[in-house]
Amino acid sequence: MPTYEYECRRCGHRFEKFQAMKDRPLQRCPRCRGKIERLPGGGAGILFRGAGFYATDYRSAGYRKAARADKSGESTKAAPAAGSAAKGDTTKSKAG
User: Fold this and answer.
1) Of 27, 55, 67, 70, which is least packed with CB atoms within 10 Å of its CB?
2) Is residue 53 part of a domain?
3) In contact, 33 and 22? CB cutoff 8 Å
4) Nearest CA-CA partner of 95 in 83, 85, 86, 81
5) Are 36 and 28 in contact (CB under 8 A)?
6) Domain count, the chain
7) Strand partners, 35
8) 28 CB contacts (<8 Å, ≥6 apart)?
9) First vs last Cα of the chain: how many Å apart?
10) Range of the domain at 14
11) What is the mean pLDDT of residues 32-47?
12) Rg (CA), the chain
């Protein structure tokens, strides 16, 4: 729910009111009961709370697992499939 800012036309009292967007704007000043108007808002700022926010914070579990393995020096590549020759292997397997 947004916070709206109001100003009284009679006494100049300015105040904020936390209201739902569907609520009607206030009509009377809480101090003098004069007419008030809702002031245009500047919009809300974005609040980031916590240790930090990075593009990599929300990566998939598979990506994070591969990154951890890469950091620890483990290979993330799968071993060659059975029956396929490794690169540089010149021997041919004989069919039985």
Assistant:
1) 55
2) no
3) no
4) 83
5) yes
6) 1
7) 28
8) 34, 35, 36
9) 75
10) 3-39
11) 83
12) 33
pLDDT band, very low/low/confident/very high, at 30 (cuts 50, 70, 90): very high
Give a yes or no: residue 90 inside a domain. Answer: no
> With helix as H, strand as E and coil as C, how does the chain read?
CCEEEEEECCCCCEEEEECCCCCCCCCECCCCCCEEEEECCCCCCCCCCCCCCCHHHHCCHHHHHHHHHHHCCCCCCCCCCCCCCCCCCCCCCCCC
7 close to 36: Cβ distance less than 8 angstroms: yes
pLDDT digit string (tens) for 74-96?
Answer: 654 555 555 545 555 555 555 54
CA distances from 48 to 45, 51, 59 (A): 10, 9, 18
Distance, in Å, from the CA atom of 3 to the CA atom of 61, rounded to the nearest integer, reads: 38
In a domain, 35, yes or no: yes
What are the φ/ψ torsions at residue 64 (nearest 5 degrees)?
Answer: -65, -40
d(CA 93, CA 80): 15
pTM: 0.44
Confidence band for 40, pLDDT divided at 50, 70 and 90: confident
